[in-house]
Every structure is written in C-alpha cells, then in structure tokens.
Amino acid sequence: MIHAWGITDTGSVRQQNQDGFYLDLPSGTLAVGVVCDGMGGARAGNIASLLAVETFVDALQNQTGEVPDAPPALLQYAAEQANQAVFHRAQTDPDCRGMGTTMVAVILAEPTAYLLNIGDSRAYHISEDGIVKVTRDHSVVEDLMVRGQITPEQARTHPRKNLITRALGAESHIRADLYEKRLEKGDFLLLCSDGLSNVVTDQEMLYEALHGGPPEECCRRLLDIALSRGAPDNVTVVLFQIV
What we know:
Layout: E1 2-9, E2 19-27, E3 30-39, H1 42-61, H2 71-92, E4 100-101, E5 103-109, E6 112-118, E7 122-127, E8 130-133, H3 140-146, H4 152-156, E9 177-182, E10 188-192, H5 194-197, H6 202-210, H7 218-228, E11 235-242
Antiparallel strand pairs: 1-11, 2-3, 3-4, 3-5, 5-6, 6-9, 7-8, 7-10, 10-11
Helix pairs in contact: 1-2
C-alpha cells in the first residue's frame, strides 16, 4: 500500500511560485508524482513548470496502444511530450523565449519506483538504513564534485550552484536520466525542488521522515525548516511511503 503527500510554497523571497507538482494514487499499489522548477524570468518560469506538468500528466493519462506500457518508456514518452510543449512555447512566444524547467518524475508500481530526471530537482530514497540521493543533478557543481574539484559541503555554498546543464524545453529533444529503485515496507521516496535541498540537509530529511512525527505532516515540517532559514527559493516536496 502506498501513501503520498505533497506541498509547495513561494518561500520567503520570491514574488511568484515557479515550481509545479502533481501527485496521484490511481490505486493502492500505484502512484505517480512529478516536480518541476521553472526558469526564464518571472512569467516564463511559471509557464514552463505548469505547462510541463500538465503536458506530462496528459501524456500519461491519454496513453494509447501506440505508447509503450513499460514504466521507463512511458516516463520517457511523457517527458518528451512535455519538452515539445515547452520548447514550442519558448520558440513562438517572445515573452517566453529562453524558458525551461527541471523535472523529476516517478511511476511507483509497488515495490519498484521508476524515476526520470532533468536538471537539479531530486529524488531521495529514505529507509532505516539511511538516505540516498537516487538521481544525479545535471548541474555545474555536480560535475565539479564528480571530478573531485569540490566537496559536497563546498557545493552547497558554491557561487555557481544554481547553474544547471540540462533543462526540459531548452532543446528540441530531451536528455533525461532514468532510474529504478526497489522500496521495502516502511521506506519513503521524496521528490523535491532545489528550494528544499539547498537549505535542508539530507540528514534532516532523513530525521523528519523517520522520527520527526506523523509522516502525513513531514512535507510541512520540511517546508517549515526551509522557511525558518529564509527560504530564498520556491520550495516543493512530494513524499511517498510504502506501508
């Protein structure tokens, strides 16, 4: 059985929430979630994230016999449709030129989570054994860490930490990464925008999910931590639990 919760907030500094998310539980053993973090100016970033979420969800819901039914292929297909919608809007609407969005998405078919990501919105697996970042950021600082030029601690405050190397809608075709993660009873899967991960540590996410209180209030607790630290960006959290 899967339980799920989600929350989004403008944060303490931004004038508009350019994050978007969707969460659905079609059955007790199947869940779908997506988080997008838009960029490209005040209006365009909002359009990019919402258009990506809406198109992604429509592609999942309107699948036909021509669409692959395997979860990884379905995620790829839906993300491609979202990319085409955002890319086309960016090319044809002068107010939206240059816009794009991150995306992290999951089809959770208990007990396996099938994930896709573009950009630096993340997915974490949380269990009694600890917390693991499942996705890999497409960002300048992630590349620097992989090359051993900076540490994870330095990455959190690096002046280029907000520069991403891939975005949905930036090119005519996407370059997305796909992952699979098996979840056990009691495990959590957390999706978030960088508005959370830039100010709340992995260990704090782990603590709040496992020990902070009722799981249905975990997203709110994590948001409150981000707000208590000034929440310089929009904050979005989606949490799944296998029960």
